[in-house]
Amino acid sequence: MSNYKIQSPIDSRNAGIRNELLVLNILRTHGQMSQSGLCRQADLSSSTVSYIIGRLREKNLIIEEYGQSASRGAKPVLISINPTGRFVLGIEINPTDIFAGLFDFNCKLTESIRTTITAEQNIGEIVKLIEITARGLLSKHNITEKMTAGIGLAVSGSISKAGVVELSSPMGWKAVPLRAMLQERFDCPVSVHATRVRLLAEKIIDPTLTSQNILYLNVANGVGGHIISDGRLIHGTDNRSGEIGHIVIDANGPRCGCGHKGCLEAYISGPALAAKIRNDLTTADSQLVPMIAEGDLPTDVLAKWGQALKNNDAYALKLQKYVADKLTPIAATAINCYDPEVVILAGYVCMQCFDYLAEAIRRHIETDVFDNLSRQISIIPAKAGDKAIIIGTASAILREFAEPA
Ligand SMILES: [Zn+2]
User: Fold this and answer.
1) Cα of 346 to ligand 1 centre, how many Å?
2) What's the pLDDT tens digit per position in 78-89?
C-alpha cells in the first residue's frame, strides 16, 4: 500500500474542517475567486475544492455567481464570502466602558456601541451589562445566536487560554473566569482574547498589508509588542507573548505596575510619561507649563506634549529623545528576534511623534540589527484607531471559525 499514513474517520473530518477554514480565509483575503483560482491558492485538488465548496454552500457561507468569460466559452463561476452567512461580536472591556461591535462574515463593521461602566460596578454587574449590550446589538439586527459565529471579549491583562482573566490591572481583576461566566448565558461560542488581537485589525483596515511577518509596537497605557510570524499571530505558551514593556532596562529603576523594577513600561507608558511631565514642569521652562491642567488624563497630557512638539518646544523635544532612547534598543532587539518585514508603531504615545521614532528606529537598525544591509523593513503608523481591538477580536474569531457539518 503506497499510502502508509492511514486516516481515521475523525482525521478526515478534521481535515475537511481545516480545509473549509483555509478556503474561507483565502476568500476573505482575496475577495471573489474562481474554483480553479482557489485550487491554486489553497494547493488542493479540484475534487477536494469541489467538495469543500459544496459543504460551504450547504452552510450558506458562500455566494456563487457567474463572472464574465474572456472568450465565447462558458462563463466562470465566481465564489465569494456570503457577508450575511454568519455574524461576530467583538467586545472590548475598558475601565470606563464596554465597546461592542457587530461584524459580518467578511469582518466588516455593521454597528458599534459604547455602554458606560462605573468604578462601583462589580464583576457580576459588568457581566450582566456585557450580556445586555451583546443581546441588544444582535436583536436590533435580527441576528439569532445560531447565526452568530462567536462572541469575543478582549481585556487588557494576562488572559489564560481557557478565558480566565488572571490579572487585569486596568480593571482591577484577578482570576476572573470571564469566558465561563458569559458562556453560560449564550448558545454560541464565547472567547476571551488578549489585546494583541489589535494587530489583526491592521490587516483588515489596510488590505495592502499582506506581509506575513509584522512587529507591532504599542506604547499607550501599557507597552507591548505583538508579532505576526510566518502569517500567524503569536500567543505563546500561556498567552503572554510580546511583553516587551516588562523588559528590565535598569534593575535599579522605578517600580513597574508588574512589581519589578526598571521595566520599559515604567519609563515610557502614557501614565509614566504624564507623571514625568508633571514632575519635570515644576522646574523646567516649557510652553507646556500653563497647558497642563490638574484633571488631565495621561492621553490629554500626551496630546498637549504633541502640540508642544509641533511648536519645537525645547523641553518637549528633549522628552521625545528620552522616549526614543528607551524604546529603540528594545525595538532593535525585537527585530533581531523576529525578523519582521513591517514594523507598526501604535498607541497614543507613538502617535505624538511617529516620524521621529520611526527615524530613530531606522538608525538603530543600522547599528544594532544583524545583517541590516539585506533587510528591507518598512516602519508605518497603525491605522485601525480606536476600533482596533473590536475589529481585531472579530478577525481572530473569523480566522479560526470552523463549524462541524
Ligand atoms: Zn513590569
Assistant:
1) 19
2) 999 999 999 999
